[in-house]
Amino acid sequence: MKIFITGSSGFIGFHLSKKLLDKGHAVYGFDSMNSYYDIKLKKNRNELLKKYKKFFFTKGNLENQKILSKSIIKFKPKIIIHLAAQAGVRYSIEKPRVYLDSNIIGTYNIIELAKKINIKHLLIASSSSVYGANKKSPFKEIDKTETQLSIYAATKKSTESIAHSYSNIWKIPTTVLRFFTVYGPWGRPDMALFKFTKGIINKKKIDIYNQGKMYRDFTYIDDIVDSVCSLINKEPNLKELGKIKNDSLSPVAPFRIVNIGNTKKVYLLNFISTLEKELGIKAIRNYMPMQKGDVKTTLSDTTLLKKLTGYKPKTNYKTGIKKFLKWYLKYYN
To answer: Which residue, among 46, 54, 36, has the nearest Cα to 94 in the 3D structure?
Structure first.
């Protein structure tokens, strides 16, 4: 298949592109290569992908409709997987305009082009952060999501709504992917595991918000990639409406939302203790109050993913930490 992936030099985009290329698919990557975090990491990911003969790449911003349109229409993909976004809950408080431009306008441009080329299946990345202040746990796709706590989460919820509207009007088969705390090799330096590891190794203080009294549904990158791959050929259609109970299928459009998480609630302090044990170094802990825009707990219900694909993420966080550290120590020598 010919698959167009935005954010191909990003954490998830890199791993997904590599997996699909290994399977023999042609992949066209599109990425802004911005400097939100270490550009060297993005360049190194991209260099690995460029070794594949069936990988094509364009550097550009999603907001630039001209260059985006040229890339997609030239490639004529059957599948578009839209992963690119301005990431980071905390950064969205400082630079909200960046999120409006990249996440909302950028996603709108992708959806418009998906309509134009009559795409077979459009998959769009969202986030567990859209569940916001929901108290009910675990989070199900059918739960209300009206209480986002950050600008980042609000932009993700907005793109879900826009995607549903387009799917309804133009009958675009669309799957929205709500990812839960992704971690693993080649990860983002602004995320917890990466920051904690760097701090502990360099004997620097690590900031632990809400005194560490937080829970996360940590989901290993391979489980994320395998979940997405299992959904590519499972595009929603109007015939399946109402056939699968307790799901997020739209009652009017070929549209669905799917949680992708590990379904295990991990206490943050236990996560840090495991990291200390594997490194053989005690962290210098700097306990801090709750950060604005953050949530205390995330936990996924992935029943729908299992019903649709038969797949269930399975990597234990202790195993995931070991795999991350093996990569990190080698990459940073």
So the answer is: 36
Q: How many distinct structural domains can be found in the chain? A: 1
* Among 45-49, 191-195, 288-292, the least confident range: 288-292
Residue range 230-250: average pLDDT?
75
206 within domain boundaries: no
Residue 194, domain member (yes or no): no
Please determine, for residue 182, whether its predicted confidence score (pLDDT) is greater than 70: yes
Note the pLDDT of residue 249. 72
Cα radius of gyration rounded to whole Å, the chain: 19
Any domain includes 147: yes
Helix intervals (H) in 233-316? 268-279, 303-309
Domain that holds residue 104: 2-183+219-261+301-309
- pTM, entire model: 0.95
Catalytic residue positions, numbered: 152
Q: Are 53 and 61 in contact (CB under 8 A)?
A: no
Instruction: Note whether 295 and 133 are within 8 A (CB).
Output: yes
Helix, strand or coil, per DSSP, at residue 8: coil
Q: Is residue 285 part of a domain?
A: no
